[in-house]
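Let's sit down with a protein and look at its sequence and fold side by side. Go ahead whenever you are ready, and we will take it from there.
>
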Amino acid sequence: MRFAFLFLCLSLAVAGAQIAVQVGGRSVGPANTLNFESGSGIIQSCHPDAGSRITCTPAVDSAFIATRNSVHGTQNYCLSATKSTSYACRTASGILSSYATGMTFVLVVDVPCKDKCSLNVDELGPVSIKRSDGRIDPDGTLVAGQPQWVFYDGQVFRLMGGGGGGGEARVGGDSGRDVMARRFIAAMETMPYARTLSLETTAGDVHKTTTNNSVGNATINAATAGLPGQHMWVIITNDQISPKTVSFGNNFKSAGALTGTPGKSATLQFISDGTAWYEVARTRNL
C-alpha cells in the first residue's frame, strides 16, 4: 500500500513537470504540452502509437508546393486555342500570381506566328514573343501544332528552339534572312534498325541506320513534317549478308523505296515545306 502511494506521487510529479522546448537549438520556452501546427506547405498528422506513444508525420501540401509528378507532368504545358496570334493558356494546376524571370513553358499554338505575336498566361497580360535573341519577331518560326520551349527573360518570351539569330547575323536588303557563319556542323541521330523506324526530326539534321539481316526490310516514318525550308539527310548502310529494302512512310514524299547493296551505303536528302519531307537527292553504293 505504501509502495503504491509513493508510485502515485512520483507519477503526478512527472506529469506536472515541464520540459524545455527548443527549435534549432534556441529555447522557445518550458511547457507541459508540445503542439504541432500545420504551416504553409506543410501538413501535420499525429496519432496514438503503441499505447503510450504519439507519432507525428509531416506531409507536403501540394496546393503550395509542387510535387515531382506535377513538375514533370503538364505543369509547364501551355496550349493556346485562341485561333489568333494573341496566344493564351492556363497552367495545369493552380494560377500564376505573376510572371517571373526564368520561367519556361512548352508552347503549342493553333495559328502560326507569321509576324508579331504575344502570349498571355493565366490572364496575367499579353507578353511579346521574340526569337532567342529577344529582339527579332518570330516571323514564321513559330508553327501551329509544333511545340516549342519559350523562356521569359523579364520583358519578353524568347523562343528556345529554332528561330534564333541575332541582328548582327542579318544582312539588309533582299538578303535580310540570310545568316553568315564560318562553319555549321549538323547534329546526327543514330536510329536502331527495326521493321518500323521512327525518325525524330528534332533530334538533328543527319539520321543514320544500319540494316540487320535478322530484321529484314523496314519502313522509316518521320515523327513530324518539319519546318518550311528545313533540310535533313538520311544515311542507310546495308549489312554484308543480303540487300534490304527500306521504304519511306509517314510525312515523306520520296522517289520510292531504297534497295541496298550488301556492304554499301546510300545517302538521301530531303527538304520540308511544312507539310511533308520531299526527296531532292539520292546517292547509292557508297
